[in-house]
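Data deposition worksheet. Section B asks for the primary sequence of the deposited chain exactly as it was used as input, without tags or linkers unless they were present during the calculation. Section C holds the resulting structure in token form. Section D is free text for depositor observations; keep each observation to a single sentence. Incomplete worksheets are returned to the depositor.
Section A, Depositor: J.P.
Section B:
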Amino acid sequence: MTLTNQQIANTKKEFADNIQISGLSIPTIAKELNTNEEKIESILALNTKAFEDGWILRNYLLEKIEEQGKQPEPFTALVGDHHDYWFLNARKIDKRKMS
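Section C:
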């Protein structure tokens, strides 16, 4: 999946907005996703080769925000159900297994 420059900018902002809404820190997110802070920062910069990593972070943030009874910022490029995208490894995303 290739994003346009505008989609890249929007997705970075949407990630940042949702982290702010969640109230979670990067270290907390990294720990809960069994990875390190550098990996999370790389995903936030959209500097990852595994498309699944962005979806794992997206789903995690949406879940945490909704658990708090808050409204997440909608994602405009990472939309819908990841099971519907042929190029994504849905099992990897479901298991939250980062690359």
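Section D:
The mean pLDDT is 96.
The chain is about 55% helix and 0% strand.
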